[in-house]
């Protein structure tokens, strides 16, 4: 019974993960056309704004796309076990893409005019994106795989924010103030990420310890039966 229940829970988790990644892919396609099509369609008015820094924007968009699309493969245990070499190679590509995209984003936001909307928000998000990626890289260099997995999860959560926040901005929210909804989305994303990382250690481990203690506790002897 215990094994069958664990398999059922694992299947539900994998199914939910696939649904989330599928939704993220749909949002990515939407954002690519709605917000980033100026990279391909130069008649868009945004191209004129980014034209002076076009050689920086292009690698930022491309590496950001690579990070978003290669990230999900880092969370597949089955893929990692069957294709460990490819997993490691894609991990290097992912972290390198994050580094390039984040550094370019930091530089571009730093040189933009002071009155640009969302400048501080994008700058802070890019810095956090770069730092979490650097910590994940340092962890894997020190062969701390568990810490590496946790920081990769946090880093990819920030990667998805660049997509989800653009979808959020297309939704008319009454009484919204500046970048307030965007900050709420970031905090909610990080909160759910931490919840996912600590769920088993907080709840499942306690149950396992209780079961182990129960199994180790000797049964009390009934009076009159042996010595």
Q: What do you see in this structure?
A:
This protein has 227 residues and is mainly alpha-helical. Helix content is 77%, strand content 0%. The protein has helices at 2-34, 45-50, 54-70, 77-82, 84-111, 119-141, 145-169, 180-216. It is globular.
In a nutshell, what does this entry contain?
The chain has 227 residues and is an all-alpha fold.
- Count of beta strands: 0
What overall form do the CA principal axes indicate?
A: globular
Write the element-wise H/E pattern from the N-terminal end onward. HHHHHHHH
In whole angstroms, the N-to-C terminal distance is: 36 Å
Can you tell me the residue ranges where pLDDT is under 50 for at least 5 consecutive residues? 5-13
**Mean pLDDT over all positions:** 77
Q: Can you give the helix content as a percent range?
A: over 70%
| Radius of gyration, whole Å | 23 Å
Output the number of helix runs: 8
What is the strand content? under 5%
Give the biggest beta sheet.
none
Structural class: mainly alpha
């Amino acid at each position: 019974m215990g094994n069958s229940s664990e398999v059922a829970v694992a299947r539900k988790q994998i199914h939910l993960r696939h649904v989330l990644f599928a939704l993220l892919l749909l949002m990515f396609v939407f954002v690519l056309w709605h917000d980033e099509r100026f990279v391909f369609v130069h008649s868009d008015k945004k191209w004129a704004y980014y034209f002076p820094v076009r050689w920086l924007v292009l690698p930022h968009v491309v590496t950001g796309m690579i990070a978003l699309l290669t990230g999900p493969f880092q969370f597949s245990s089955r893929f990692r076990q069957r294709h460990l070499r490819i997993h490691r190679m894609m991990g290097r590509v992912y972290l390198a893409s994050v580094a390039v995209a984040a550094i370019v984003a930091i530089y571009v936001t730093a040189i933009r005019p002071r009155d640009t909307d969302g400048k501080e928000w994008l700058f802070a998000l890019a810095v956090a994106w770069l730092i979490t990626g650097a910590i994940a890289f340092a962890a894997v260099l020190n062969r701390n795989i568990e810490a590496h997995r946790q920081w990769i999860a946090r880093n990819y959560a920030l990667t998805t924010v660049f997509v989800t926040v653009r979808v959020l901005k297309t939704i008319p929210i009454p009484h919204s103030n500046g970048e307030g909804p965007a900050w709420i989305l970031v905090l909610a994303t990080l909160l759910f990420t931490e919840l996912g990382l600590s769920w088993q250690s907080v709840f499942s481990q306690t149950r396992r310890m209780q079961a182990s203690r129960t199994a180790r506790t000797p049964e009390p002897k009934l009076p009159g039966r042996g010595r």
